[in-house]
Amino acid sequence: xxxxxxxxxxxxxxxxxxxxxxxxxxxxxxxxxxxxxxxxxxxxxxxxxxxxxxxxxxxxxxxxxxxxxxxxxxxxxxxxxxxxxxxxxxxxxxxxxxxxxxxxxxxxxxxxxxxxxxxxxxxxxxxxxxxxxxxxxxxxxxxxxxxxxxxxxxxxxxxxxxxxxxxxxxxxxxxxxxxxxxxxxxxxxxxxxxxxxxxxxxxxxxxxxxxxxxxxxxxxxxxxxxxxxxxxxxxxxxxxxxxxxxxxxxxxxxxxxxxxxxxxxxxxxxx
Amino acid sequence: xxxxxxxxxxxxxxxxxxxxxxxxxxxxxxxxxxxxxxxxxxxxxxxxxxxxxxxxxxxxxxxxxxxxxxxxxxxxxxxxxxxxxxxxxxxxxxxxxxxxxxxxxxxxxxxxxxxxxxxxxxxxxxxxxxxxxxxxxxxxxxxxxxxxxxxxxxxxxxxxxxxxxxxxxxxxxxxxxxxxxxxxxxxxxxxxxxxxxxxxxxxxxxxxxxxxxxxxxxxxxxxxxxxxxxxxxxxxxxxxxxxxxxxxxxx
Amino acid sequence: xxxxxxxxxxxxxxxxxxxxxxxxxxxxxxxxxxxxxxxxxxxxxxxxxxxxxxxxxxxxxxxxxxxxxxxxxxxxxxxxxxxxxxxxxxxxxxxxxxxxxxxxxxxxxxxxxxxxxxxxxxxxxxxxxxxxxxxxxxxxxxxxxxxxxxxxxxxxxxxxxxxxxxxxxxxxxxxxxxxxxxxxxxxxxxxxxxxxxxxxxxxxxxxxxxxxxxxxxxxxxxxxxxxxxxxxxxxxxxxxxxxxxxxxxxxxxxxxxxxxxxxxxxxxxxxxxxxxxx
Lengths: 271, 251, 278
What we know:
The structure holds 3 protein chains of 3 kinds.
Chain A: E1 2-3, H1 11-17, E2 22-33, E3 37-48, E4 52-56, H2 63-71, E5 78-83, E6 86-87, E7 95-98, H3 110-114, H4 116-120, H5 125-138, H6 154-167, E8 172-176, H7 184-200, E9 204-209, H8 212-218, E10 221-226, E11 231-237, H9 246-249, H10 253-267
Helix pairs in contact in A: 5-6, 8-10
Chain B: H1 8-11, H2 13-26, H3 36-48, H4 50-83, H5 85-100, H6 107-114, H7 118-142, H8 146-154, H9 159-170, H10 172-197, H11 201-211, H12 215-250
Helix pairs in contact in B: 3-12, 4-5, 4-7, 4-10, 4-11, 5-7, 6-7, 7-10, 8-9, 10-11, 10-12, 11-12
Chain C: H1 4-14, H2 24-30, H3 33-54, H4 62-74, H5 77-109, H6 111-126, H7 133-140, H8 144-168, H9 172-180, H10 185-222, H11 227-237, H12 241-269
């Protein structure tokens, strides 16, 4: 594991030294709400292809705002976001969003929900249902295709949200605290499943969380944001072996030390 | 609800409608609408007439009595339904029936039983307002958080103390919401009651105006009633907003 | 993600579908039939005993009213009256549905439409629109037109306001979801906003129909006695109180049954997301 020094001036230099090519680049992004609330201040980041990067920080650090800007759901006040080398102007087919509150349509079945991204693109019903069925199965909901969201538990609903994002075959998955609305046990299971999922699906993940353990457990890299105004505080590259036994990670001294270190860094921002 | 909030720029569009009304009236496009300015002139006439003073007093008198009775009876009924399951099962159906029934059809019955005077109007106001107050109170009582009741019990509060110190206050947002709706329905009741009785108060004025083809006066009186309805609704909304701070904390 | 299947199945066991507070009529529907029959019987008994005890000529007992009702069904006068009454009601409510839902949805979708028309509907909903009925008679005479206008005046505001609130209260997260998958504005409206708003719009239709009944009865009592209003006025004038009571009870029951049927239809149509209907 390597602790990077606090980023002060040149995140681009760091990015350039990395092996993988950046698929998402954030350049000089500012976000100001209501004229005077500075949610994000001068954010410069790049995200490499195929990696899982977490945006971590206490509430009010603007991590969700940043993710929504990358998703194209929010407009930055200044700066720009490049995806695959092109400046974004809104949501695009190369990105898919997983919502904190799941954002499932209560009047539609699991299958229709999972196929909704494809439905919006005008994919014929037979084809999109086939694709959705595959991903519903992959997230572990085989047999629930015809159920409605209110018949599912919170964890299962988020699996539908995940299947929907996977079904559109985007390169980048943007996950906004996807596991925060589910209970602790389900959450652990989810984290393990996410690691497994990465072995099957070759995608870039951007993952927002307020849980240090979760960030350290699932990420290749953690971007630590500090609040008021939200800015990049630290970038931590992790080198934790994610082998056959997902449980082993939680006992890895490396893992425990990193969690401790991040906690010490974050503590000063809490009231 | 944002609609009772102070969105002054939005309400400003009413001015546009008034101007439109004036134009329609001036051009004689719709018989229903005399020029708005003429209505405003008639407003002075209406307000200064002797019969108006008596109409106002009888309207306010019946409204206050009817609404007062409805609040007392409605809250009590709601409490009964919220706390006694048997009462709830027997009464719930009727409360809901009266809530969606065309109550104006009952006014002839009320007229027969209570005569052609203020008592009929009072009962009409009561009938219009009471059911929604009872239903909302019931909902409020039923939705008191179980943890609050357990807290009271764990500190040894009696049932009586719990009702007065916990349930009443915890249910207050719903009770007030019910009263606000009751207030608005009550205004409709006081108008419909007097229209049907037609020989007292506002009803008598309407009859006079339509017998003498005084369109402008008719509209002026209607506008006064509208203003009255909106004002009482607004006042209750203000009261509700003051209760909101802890109602918000509860959800 | 292979073993997740079993976890998922286990989880369904303890995840009950959530039920929010049921709608007004649903609360009646939830009661066992027994309680409703008991409640009904109790009401009739109180009426019967109360009327007999009071000895008031103007307060006929339940049984007298029931006989009068059967008599009026026998001579067909009730059917004829309902035929006349339903005409302005159906025309008026249909008009209110088309215009009310249309304007309500437009107000919910567009800020400029909202700015222009919402205050008018707020005033119409809070104000005693019944006060305008004599005015309408004054202008449009005592025919069908006046009665239709009366029905529209009472039923339109609640339908429009409910449609507006339904559209305005759609979940921002769902519209954001649709946007994030590059849904067009039209797809957002047709696939997310309208389906989500429809239970509440329908609830507004139900309330509008209830108001429409009120409107048509008021119109028939105030404007010119036709249909039900005629029966009420006529029997009152000849002091035939049991028949008058029977007519009034019948219209109340008719209205309540219609509204209850609409409520049942509402739950049947929007069953999967029942919890969302208010």
